[in-house]
Every structure is written in structure tokens, then in C-alpha cells.
Amino acid sequence: MLKAMEEVWEGRTFCLSLPLEYPGGSKLNPRRKPPRIFPTVRENGCLTCNFIMSEGRHDGTDVVNDDVAILSLQYSSHWDAFSHYGSLFDADGDGIAEIVYYNGFSGADTIVTQADDASATRQMCALALGVENIAASGVQGRGVLVDLRAVLGDERTLVGYETLSWIMRVQNVQVEEGDILCLHTGFAQKVIESGLNPDHRTLHESCVALDGRDRALLDWIDRSGLAAIVADNYAVEGGPYDDLQGHVARMPLHEHCLFKLGIPLAELWHLSPLAEWLRLHGRTRFLLTAPPIRLTGAVGAPVTGVATV
């Protein structure tokens, strides 16, 4: 943290999150829906929307609005909790693979569901490894940005360790233990420019993503001592990969970080304005403050990250 504070030279801040209504629609992921906001309902059945509190009882001038939101927690800029991604793994050595999450938590110990009669669906709760643990830790430290877009442009490119390390040398990026690695690809900027109407095929065929199949990249992440990885693209890595053979993860970087190492992943951040400013000023490091909302039992949560330079 003290090293992160040393990166604050000007006291200027950058908001690193997309507005929660972005990317717009559900074409990028049909399971995740844009947020909807409703007024709350008062005891008398009135909506708390331009609600005059006096209601004829007194001469008060108070007018109030109160709302409730329904949103997919990983729709826009967000953190993935460790309960977001597990693996089928023979943890007890009996020859049978079972659902396991980070630090050996079983599927039954981690995720529970129960009927929700009010919505005719099932409620879900992460008993262990919920996103509230990330929120409680503070999530504040030194961010280090690698500007992949500045070198590789907007073409769809999968980046392994060799290319990543080369770009880091070119940009004089140094990553130390405890740093938060931020990867600028330009994807979120394209989402913003789409104006809530993204062409999912164009987006999925654009911009840089890490190649989670690259063993050297995974080994480097292991050795680096990173506290977290942040990207402005959809999943940090370019998977799911259809060319992987055998009983293996289709999202190997997710498995490696969230399941094996305990390194949180963050996705769909808006890094372009920060990346441009850092590039113009010859810098790569900054103070990053980015706790998710503290929602107990959630497997991911929105975040409004702030970079201070």
C-alpha cells in the first residue's frame, strides 16, 4: 500500500468502470441482462416516485424518490469471486472427480440454492468464497498498466507470455509482488462507442485477449505474485477454447487464477482514458482503489474502480 501511495503525484483521478447499463442488451452474453430500476412501493400502495410525503396530513414540502434495481452482477465492470469458477477435481484421492473450489472447498460447502416462491426461480448463495470477502479486504494497491492496444491495435490477437513480456519491456512495465496487473485492450472503449447497441460478432472478433492455453503465461502469473488481474475486455482470456483436448478446463486462465492460485479477476473495466494519460506522461503505475459491492454470498459484483495518479 505504501508503494501504491508513492505513485500519487498529481492527485488526479480516473473512473475505471463502465456505466452499469453497458454493454447494452444481452448479445454478448444471453444469460446476463441489463439493469432495470423500479420505484419502491409504500405501505399504502403508492409508488415512491415524486412522492409528496405530506399526503395532506401537514404542510411539509418533502418530495422523495426511492428505488430498487434488478441486475446481473457480472453484466458490466465487475470482479469475479473465487466462487465464480471451480473445477472437477479428485480432491480426496478416491479416483472420482468432484466439484471443488479454491482452497479445497467442495461444491456443497460453497454454493447452495433454494426455491424462491416469490419469483418462481431459485435463490443462490455462496456460503464460502463470496465476493464480500474481496470487498472486506479493501482492494486498494498499486495498479500497473500494460497497454496492449498501443502495440497490437484493435485486431483480434491472443497474447501469450512471449508477447506480453516483450510489450512490458518495450513499455518499461515492471510488475512486483502484490501489484494489480491492468491490461488495456480497447474492448471497453468499443463498447462505449457502440452506444448500448453492440455488434457482438464484431466485438468478439476485436481486440487483444490473453491466451490462457499458454503454459508459460500461466507459469509467469504463478511466479509474479500478482494480487489480481484486471482487463477491459470480456473475460481477460480469449476462451472458451474449442481446440483443447482431454479432461481439461475450457477457460484455463480462469481455472488457474480463481481455482488454483486465488488471484481475483476483473473484467470489462474502462481503462482507455487512464491508458492514454499514462502513455502521454510516460508512466505505468498508479494507486488503484476498487472494492466490489459488499453483497454477501454473491459470486461476482459490480465495481467502480478509481485510479489516482
Describe this protein's structure.
The protein is an alpha+beta fold and 309 residues long. The chain is 22% helix and 24% strand. It has 10 helices and 19 strands. It has helices spanning 2-5, 107-110, 132-136, 148-152, 161-170, 187-193, 200-204, 215-224, 252-261, 272-280; strands spanning 13-15, 36-39, 51-52, 63-64, 67-70, 78-80, 87-89, 98-100, 111-116, 121-126, 140-147, 157-159, 180-184, 208-210, 228-231, 265-267, 285-289, 300-302, 306-308. The chain has a 9-stranded mixed beta sheet. The chain is globular and about 70 Å long. The two termini are 14 Å apart. The model has no long low-confidence stretch (mean pLDDT 94).
Quickly list its features.
about 25% strand; about 300 residues; alpha+beta; two-stranded antiparallel sheet; 10 helices; single chain; 9-stranded mixed sheet
What topology does this entry show?
Elements lengths: L1 H4 L7 E3 L20 E4 L11 E2 L10 E2 L2 E4 L7 E3 L6 E3 L8 E3 L6 H4 E6 L4 E6 L5 H5 L3 E8 H5 L4 E3 L1 H10 L9 E5 L2 H7 L6 H5 L3 E3 L4 H10 L3 E4 L20 H10 L3 E3 L4 H9 L4 E5 L10 E3 L3 E3 L1
Parallel strand pairs: 11-13, 12-14, 13-15, 15-16
Antiparallel strand pairs: 1-19, 2-5, 3-4, 6-16, 6-18, 7-8, 9-10, 11-17, 17-19
How many helices? 10
**Strands, count:** 19
> Main sheet, how many strands, which sense, barrel?
9 strands, mixed
* Overall radius of gyration: 21 Å
Q: Which class of secondary structure composition applies to the elements? A: alpha+beta
Please give the alpha-carbon distance between the first and last residues.
14 Å
Strand order of the largest sheet: 1-19-17-11-13-15-16-6-18
The helix/strand series, from N terminus to C terminus, equals HEEEEEEEEHEEHEHEHEHHEHEHEHEEE
Average residue pLDDT: 94
Shape: globular
Strand percentage: 15-25%
Instruction: Work out the helicity level.
Output: 10-25%
Unreliable runs, pLDDT <50, ≥5 residues? none
